[in-house]
Amino acid sequence: QVQVVESGGRMVQAGGSLRLSCEVSYSITSFKAMGWYRQAPGKQREFVARLSSGGNANYADSLKGRFAISRDNAKNTLYLQLNGLKPEDTAVYYCKAATWTTGPGYWGQGTQVTVSS
User: Would you give the DSSP letter of residue 30?
Assistant: First the structure.
C-alpha cells in the first residue's frame, strides 16, 4: 500500500512563504506524475501544480510565478514552495501520486494552510 503524507502547512501572514512536503512510501519517479491540489472551505478541490516523471512542471495559470513544485528523488519527497501568500490561498493542500493505469491514484490526508490578512 502506497502511503502519501503531506506536511508543512501552518498559519502565515499575507505576503509570507511556506514550503509544503509530500513524503511517499514508494519511488516517486515510478509514478506517471506527482501533483498538488487544494480545497478551500466551501469550494471544490482544484489543481495547483503537477510534476511529471520526466520532470516537466505545470501550474494553474492563476498561480504561476508564485508557487514552485519540485522533488527530491532520493527522499521520495515532493515539495511545493508557496511565495507571496494571499488570504485566498487558504485551503487544505493535498498531494497526489498519479499511476500509469486508470484510477484515482494515491492521495494524502492534506495539510492546512491558513493565510491571515
Answer: G
